[in-house]
Amino acid sequence: MPIQSKKIRRTNRIRFKLKLKPNLRLSLFRSNNHIYAQLIDDEKNITVLSASSAEKKIKDIKSSPKEIAFKVGEVMGERISEKKIKQKISFDRGPYLYHGRVEELAKGVRSKGIKF
Asked: 3-111: which CATH topology?
């Protein structure tokens, strides 16, 4: 089976399970250069918050990709805390394995007291 179709199947399987729950969804996208995180409300079909390594505040940091992903997670956690969102959050890793930059982003969000 081609790798691309495996990724699509994995993504669909994960998102299907997450959409059964009425939780907000913390979705991420990982490119070669940046990492992006969005807090999505699937019931209203809106993006509540977002953070990325392409933002000026984080882009100026010179460090490893894992450290930058952790910083994006911290920024996302701060924004969730500022908005006082108490609703449950589900972590949507998409087609990515929970490893490396994906894991660091999750640790960064958790470091600010957000549970998912």
From this structure: Nucleotidyltransferase; domain 5 (3.30.420)
